[in-house]
Write a structure and sequence with these properties.
Length: 655
């Protein structure tokens, strides 16, 4: 009974199932509506952020009229002058909440002299720094009233915006100078790098295209070399450890009657080790690893053959539906758009604080002091709450949308590859436009399921981010118990996220094939995997190994080719080699770009293998090879399993 609950009952034959179901209904509608509501909320947050925010407020100074110095009406006045810095000091830490209460104006240059205005001993011509629109010479006010009403600055000191006097350098100033010098050097290098990119951009583009073509060719030939790569690696592994075991034990028997030893010193610790015992230890370890590898090979040989056959079948599926290779490009760019939108919206609310603070300060002249302070702090509290919660909401939506885009790409590919597997006679029975059909089914019926799966991952990622924040706060604190529990929670939620991503991907495969809701599909996928757990582990590890090797081959090909070209080592192309400041720049860009391309291409390949594998497991449970229930798997897989169809694809018409 317990096994029945955990593993579930094997699937039964369904005469109506001949591939991805076309007549299906909408799934997880409530989650779809919730997703749309949250998107509307994100639009509202973005609207207020764009309306009241300006990223320039975070970089450039702003005067009391909320005008950016150096822009608009203040063009040519890039510096900010405070009338009374003492007023800022009297605010204490409150200056970071409400801002400095003294008038602030934009000026073309900083003061070049020290001066204090004394009403009785000064003339109007001495008032050099006044509010915008206020003309001291034509004003009927007395100098005393001008200073009292803060129409003009009472004093100013000689200052410089960028340079620091050499006779007053302290430790913070020294740090500032060092950082500024580093910045200038980085800027110089950055300009040279950009110059190299502009010079060699078309060569970099050609290198990326060549990497794309090579990755495509590699995927196609995987159907012929996959088996060789797997078995060669296994045999090489066994041979290596077999040689290691034999050689170390031979050395032990040669030296066991001697008293040879050697010394190892780590700092103040010295160790003396016996050579015979060291060889014996390495021999025993190598022998244990060799024994485990041989036992795994003996017991899992047929499953490894199945994994290799499925990988070959995945290559055939990708080769049959070549347009699947361009599918990851669209989710990739959508993820970039989502992340870019998140960054933009994240910057604008932060800058809106400065805008709203300045707007509140303008009410000081029209309200009495007590009412002003009450409204000021009430509004600032609302502002800070709005910014904080909008940033949290924006971050959560970024996680949700990115995972939604990933889920959309996975389900679209799963529907296409499921159509390939459940075609009895390939490629004749594969439906027309399988990718577009699968994409249409995702948008028409399963937006809610996609949002549901993405929501679960997004919640876990937000919890992980919170734990990272708590862990950062605990650094330097003497609370080992709290640190231990936080580390344990971080590990647990990392594992949970990996498991949920694995389960979600398999749930999307079954949703694409059967059209059921997310929870039902996730449950069915989990039970199907648990009933075939050994096969799942073998196919997963073999696929991971082959994809790793494939990525390394593509990246190594692109990196080596770009190195020999930009270093001028290809003689017949030497005339095209550009003169660059750093020839390593295009090499690095081609290498990184080729890795991204390889990851995109082989993610399609991985999805093909995962989809075909789940379909293969379903095929084994639903069908038995009879005329009524023939297998849909390839002839190679039937041969490995010792199964056959009473009716073959070539006899289908007669049947």
């Amino acid at each position: 009974y317990f096994c029945c609950i955990i593993l579930g009952k094997p699937l039964t034959y369904d005469k109506n199932f001949k591939g991805p179901i076309k007549d299906r209904s909408c799934t997880d509608i409530i989650c779809c509506l919730l997703f749309l509501i949250f998107i509307v909320g994100l639009v509202v947050v973005a609207f207020f952020a764009f309306k009241y925010g300006d990223p320039r407020l975070l970089v450039y100074p702003v005067n009391s009229n909320n005008e950016i110095c150096g822009y608009g009406n203040q063009l040519g006045k890039p510096y900010l002058l405070f009338f009374d810095l003492v007023a800022c000091g009297r605010m204490g830490m409150g200056v970071f909440v409400t801002g400095c209460p003294t008038p602030q104006i934009c000026v073309a240059s900083c003061p070049t002299e020290n001066n204090v205005i004394i009403a009785a001993a000064s003339t109007k011509s001495d008032l050099k720094y006044c509010k915008d629109g206020f003309d001291a010479d034509s004003s009927s006010k007395s100098i005393a009233n001008m200073l009292k009403d803060e129409d003009c600055a009472t004093y100013w000191f000689k200052s410089q915006p960028c340079k620091i006097s050499s006779d007053s350098i302290d430790i913070p100033s020294l740090i500032l100078i060092t950082v500024y010098g580093t910045f200038l050097k980085a800027k110089e290098y950055g300009e040279k790098i950009i110059e190299d990119v502009v010079t060699a951009w078309w060569m970099i583009l050609i290198g990326l295209i060549l990497a794309m073509v090579f990755a495509l060719i590699w995927i196609i030939i995987m159907r012929w070399i996959a088996g060789f790569m797997v078995w060669f690696t296994i045999l090489a592994f066994i041979s290596l450890f077999g040689f290691s075991t034999g050689w170390t034990l031979y050395q032990y028997y040669q030296l066991k009657d001697t008293d040879q030893s050697f010394h190892i010193q780590f700092s103040v610790i010295q160790m003396t080790m016996s050579k015979p015992k060291l060889f014996l230890a390495f021999g025993i370890i190598s022998g244990i690893i060799l024994l485990i590898a041989v036992l795994i090979l003996l017991f899992l040989c047929s499953r490894i053959r199945i994994a290799v056959s499925l990988i070959k079948e995945g290559s055939r599926a990708v080769g049959t539906m070549m347009f699947t290779l361009i599918c990851p490009i669209f989710p990739f760019f959508l993820q970039i758009v989502v992340i870019g939108f998140w960054l933009t919206v994240a910057v604008y609310p932060s800058s809106s604080v400065y805008y709203l603070k300045a707007s509140i300060r303008t009410k000081k002249c029209t309200l009495n002091q007590i009412l002003f302070v009450t409204i000021l702090f009430h509004n600032l509290l609302l502002i800070n709450c709005f910014v904080l919660y909008s940033q949290i909401f924006n971050l959560f939506m970024m996680f949700w949308l990115v995972n939604f885009v990933v889920a959309l790409g996975q389900m679209t590919l799963a529907g296409a590859f499921a159509s390939y597997y459940w075609a009895f006679e390939k490629p004749k029975d594969i439906p027309a436009f399988p990718i577009l059909s699968s994409l249409w089914r995702c948008f028409r019926y399963h937006l809610g399921s996609l949002a549901f799966g993405a929501l679960i991952i997004a919640i876990v990622q937000m919890i992980r981010l919170l734990l990272e924040y708590v862990d950062a706060k605990l650094k330097g604190k003497e609370n080992p118990v709290a640190k231990f529990f936080v580390k344990c929670l971080k590990c647990c939620f990392w594992c949970l996220e990996k498991f949920l991503k694995f389960l979600n991907k398999n749930a999307y495969i079954l949703i694409a094939a059967h059209g059921k809701n997310f929870c039902t599909s996730a449950k069915n996928a989990f039970m199907l995997i648990m009933r075939n757990i050994v096969r799942v582990v073998v196919i997963d590890k073999v696929t991971d190994f082959l994809l790793l090797i494939s990525k390394l081959v593509v990246v190594a090909f692109a990196a080596a080719s770009s190195y020999f070209f930009f270093d001028g080592r290809i003689e017949f192309l030497a005339s095209f080699t550009p003169s660059l400041n750093f020839y390593v720049v295009p090499i690095v860009l081609v290498t990184l770009g080729s890795y991204v391309i390889a990851s995109c291409f082989f993610s399609v390949y991985e999805m093909a293998v995962d989809t075909l594998f789940l379909c293969f497991l379903e095929d084994l449970e639903r069908n038995d090879g009879s005329a009524e229930k023939p297998y849909f798997m390839s002839k190679d897989l039937r041969k490995i399993l010792g199964k056959k169809n009473v009716i073959s694809p070539s006899d289908k018409k007669e049947f």
